[in-house]
Design brief:
The complex is a heterodimer of chains A (about 500) and B (about 160).
Chain A (H helix, E strand, L loop, with lengths): L1 H13 L2 H19 L5 H12 L4 H26 L8 H12 L3 H34 L4 H18 L4 H15 L2 E2 L6 E2 L13 H20 L17 H23 L5 H15 L12 H16 L1 H7 L5 H12 L8 H4 L1 H22 L3 H8 L3 H20 L2 H19 L5 H23 L6 H4 L1 H15 L4 H10 L7
Helix pairs in contact in A: 1-16, 2-4, 2-16, 3-4, 3-9, 3-14, 3-18, 4-5, 4-6, 4-12, 4-14, 4-16, 4-17, 5-6, 5-12, 6-10, 6-12, 6-13, 6-16, 7-8, 7-20, 7-22, 8-20, 9-18, 9-19, 10-11, 10-12, 11-12, 14-20, 18-19
Chain B lengths: L10 H23 L2 E2 L2 E2 L3 H23 L5 H5 L4 H21 L1 H15 L5 H22 L13
Antiparallel strand pairs in B: 1-2
Helix pairs in contact in B: 1-2, 4-5, 5-6
The chains are: A mainly alpha (about 500), B mainly alpha (about 160).
Chain lengths: ~500, ~160
């Protein structure tokens, strides 16, 4: 009953006209960036972070969350119609979705993607509502040692899952932590690595770093490769799947939802691995696995359900532990911090309006997304025809505006360009940006927890191994670090290795 | 894997070397900031140990690059449109310096024009109106609607 009254309170917050507007803006922009290849939820959320300052924290966070789960819907459109995933999460959808489009079944593919996303997204919100309060109670058992170890585990999982060399990912994560330490020391308040620049006393800004590494670097790479795309002219026709489509899809949607939700909770996991795992699972369970890759609707329904469900699950560690499990959640943490709010176990008690308002807004957002992605699909298809040579100057212009508006300081513009170049060069050499960004956000918190844990335990390093939660986290992290050393396991890792910017 | 020995244009080797230099810098900064003691770690404690970890990882990468054949620096850009990327980078750097000196409008309009015309040329009939309309619209939204002040530059335009 208590839960129901809190949900009712959440709806009262989410249904205010201003929050409805912010929710709509969020899911609309989310769909937009999901549809457009070359700009993702990370860039869009960084861009709009300054806008959140204008309204209440609830409005801002509702909008940012909307961009995230909205992009999960939009990403499937380009996968199905153009065979270019709008988002890393939609890579798998290309395999069968585009095949369906080539066979003249683009409508049912798009329809099933939207409906599966809706079902999974909605169920994930129910799961989030039920699990988050219990986990918040459990979270008080997390002391500095446990927090530190959990963050180590999250970083190791990200480095494990990123594409290419794990050594390189670990290097990027280490560099990210160092960058996160720039600014005033959290314990002594003395400046570190500031080189007498006042702008660096508050640390390097998250927005210019992310915009540089993901926005600018992505544009530079795309220009170098020369993006060309042709949109399928096939008639989208009826978007409603047939009875047979439903029969084939209900199992994959159910399994994808459960799988995605739990993979979303794990730090470093998230929507991309959920989509891949769901596809692999459905192929394995299918009596006709040979249909996969040739237009099997299960290959669209399962992964689309999984990535949307994972997007919901990913909110749990952020809202209950204050730990962002992926880069997008790290940005959301940034939005909380801008408003002087610390997400974690106390958020539900101290700010129930924000906690429940954000969660319930996701129901409303999912309904909005269903409307945006079924009847209005034609508009998004038209948008896909916008050539990249017109699109990229606009993206660069928005990065400039986003960075400048977030701090009103031209120094951040230089930082963004520098990180754009770093991102472009590191991509060339096969270094992924995702571990750096996650480590950058976690860096100062990790250091604070490590030092606090050592001070509390009077320098006893075994504190990290005698506390059960901490010991489990560190053991799993150690196993994951050692896995690539075993050739068979290294091959397995390469099979599941993912693109950056997952999340 | 073929053994290639020490090849100076090995991109992986250069990558490892640059990371190793960075790790030495981090390590030294950590040392200068103060390591403290194990029961009261100082400001440089974590940085120092991260420097050591980074140094170790970069050395492994460098050694691996010597043992196995990696891509050459030149091959990373072979068959790409690197000159176009370079134009964008240089234009963007010039823009950043002009941003406060000339102001938002006077610097952004030429930026848009260059990006629209110099990379994959967009027709003048689209490029010209877009170069003016996009910055003006953004200026109007930020200055008038969101009350965010943009630089006006030495000519105080905008």
């Amino acid at each position: 009953m208590d839960l129901l009254s809190q949900v009712a309170h959440g709806f009262a917050v989410a249904l205010t006209p201003i929050n409805l507007l912010y929710c709509f803006i969020g899911v609309f922009i989310g769909t937009l960036v999901g549809v457009l290849p070359g700009i993702g939820p990370v860039s869009a959320m960084s861009l709009l972070m300054p806008v959140t300052l204008a309204g209440t924290p609830e409005s801002g966070i509702i909008m940012m969350a909307g961009i995230y789960y909205g992009s999960m819907y939009g990403g499937s459109t380009t996968s199905i119609l153009v065979n270019i995933p709008g988002e890393a999460t939609s890579v798998v959808t290309c395999l069968d979705g585009h095949e369906m489009a080539k066979q003249g079944r683009a409508g049912p593919a798009l329809g099933m993607a939207a409906i599966a996303s809706f079902i999974a997204g909605t169920i994930a919100v129910v799961g989030l509502m039920i699990i988050a309060p219990y986990l918040a109670h459990f979270a008080v058992a997390f002391g500095p040692a446990e927090m530190f170890s959990l963050m180590v585990l999250g970083l190791v999982i990200v480095t494990f899952l990123t594409q290419g060399s794990m050594l390189k990912s670990l290097l990027m994560a280490s560099a990210g932590i160092v960058l996160g330490l720039v600014g005033l020391d959290s314990i002594t308040a003395q400046p570190r690595l500031t080189f007498d620049r006042l702008e660096l006393y508050d640390g390097i800004g998250l927005v210019p770093v992310v915009m540089g590494l993901f926005g600018v670097a992505e544009v530079l790479s795309n220009i170098e490769q020369g993006i060309k795309r042709t949109v399928s002219n096939a008639d989208i026709g009826s978007k409603l799947p047939t009875r047979d489509d439903w029969k084939r899809s209900k199992g994959p949607i159910g399994r994808g939802t459960v799988l995605g939700f739990f993979l979303g909770i794990i730090p470093g996991g998230g929507a991309v691995i959920a989509a891949f795992a769901s596809y692999a699972l459905e192929k394995r369970l299918s009596k006709t696995p040979e249909r996969f890759g040739k237009g099997a609707i299960e290959g669209v329904a399962g992964p689309e359900a999984a990535n949307n469900s994972a997007a919901g699950g990913a909110f749990i560690p952020l809202l209950t532990l204050g730990i962002p499990p992926n880069v997008v959640m790290a940005l959301l943490l940034g939005a909380f911090v801008i408003h002087n709010i610390q997400p974690g176990p106390l958020l539900m008690v101290q700010r129930p309006d924000l906690f429940w308002g954000v969660i319930t807004s996701m129901y409303i957002g999912n309904v909005m997304l269903l409307v945006l992605n079924l009847p209005l699909i034609g508009i998004w298809v038209q948008l896909l025809r916008l050539p990249y040579n017109i699109l990229f100057p606009m993206i660069l212009l928005f990065t400039v505006i986003g960075v400048f508006a977030s701090s009103n300081n031209v120094f951040d513009l230089y930082v963004m360009i520098a990180f754009g170049l770093i991102g472009y060069l590191t991509r060339k050499l096969g270094y992924e940006a995702a571990p750096l960004v996650l480590a950058f956000v976690l860096g100062s918190i990790m250091e604070n927890k490590l030092r606090t844990a050592l001070i509390i335990s009077a320098g006893d390093l075994t504190t990290f191994f005698t506390k059960p939660i901490s010991a489990v986290c560190l053991s799993v992290a150690a196993i994951m670090l050692l896995m690539p050393l075993i050739p068979v396991l290294r091959k397995k890792r390469e099979q599941v290795a993912l693109e950056d910017g997952q999340s | 894997m073929k053994s290639s020995g020490l090849r100076i244009n090995n991109a992986e080797l250069w990558g490892g070397a640059i990371w190793f230099a960075i790790s030495l810098f981090v390590l030294e900064q950590g040392r200068q900031l103060g390591l403290g003691s194990i029961n009261s770690p100082g400001m440089g404690f974590m940085m120092f140990w991260l420097g050591i970890v980074m140094g170790g990882l970069s050395l492994i990468i460098a050694v691996q690059s010597i043992q196995s054949e990696g891509p050459s620096v030149r091959s990373l850009w072979a068959g790409t449109r690197w000159a176009k990327t370079l134009i964008v980078i240089v234009t963007f750097i010039i823009y950043a310096f002009a941003f406060t000196r000339l102001g938002f409008l006077l610097s952004t309009i030429p930026l848009m024009l260059v990006l629209l015309r110099a990379i994959d040329p967009v027709r003048w009939t689209i490029a010209l109106p877009l170069s003016f309309a996009a910055p003006l619209l953004i200026w109007w939204v930020l200055e008038r609607v969101l009350q965010i002040q943009l630089p006006t530059g030495m000519f105080e335009i905008g």
